[in-house]
Amino acid sequence: MSISESLQQPEGERGTWDDVRDLPPSAKLVAKVLEYNDTMTQQEIAQESLLPARTVRYALSRLEDEKVIASRFSFSDARKRLYSLQIES
């Protein structure tokens, strides 16, 4: 099983781009960053988006609430979580 397969949520539990539409701009930016980069840590998202870490944390929590991202613990560093976009096609 690949990393992206282990991050995937069951089909019925995925969000859509419509779920992202009403979120704050920071959450939309984080979703786009994850769309272009398969799997990233919070720190990598902050570096790529140029957003403060606190804003990225908030955006990730909003995206998780809408079920448009999946997260798991990093195998290389269990203190970190890896995030990936999970949007229905």
Count of discrete structural domains: 1
Indicate the overall shape: globular
- Helix and strand pattern: HHHEHHEE
Content-based structural category: alpha+beta
For the record, the CATH class is Mainly Alpha
Using the CA coordinates, give the radius of gyration: 12 Å
Distance between the termini: 21 Å
CATH architecture: Orthogonal Bundle
What portion of the residues fall into strands of 2 or more residues? Answer: 5-15%
Mean pLDDT, to the nearest integer, reads 87
**Total number of helices:** 5
The CATH superfamily is identified as Winged helix-like DNA-binding domain superfamily/Winged helix DNA-binding domain
Query: Would you tell me which CATH topology applies?
Result: Arc Repressor Mutant, subunit A
Helix content: 40-55%
Description:
By secondary structure, the chain is α+β, with helices and mostly antiparallel strands. The chain has a single domain, classed as Winged helix-like DNA-binding domain superfamily/Winged helix DNA-binding domain (Arc Repressor Mutant, subunit A, Orthogonal Bundle), CATH 1.10.10. Helix content is 48%, strand content 15%. The protein contains 5 helices and 3 strands. Strands 1-3-2 form a 3-stranded antiparallel sheet. Strand 2 and strand 3 form a beta hairpin. Helix 3 crosses helix 5 and helix 4 packs across helix 5. It is globular. The N terminus is likely disordered.
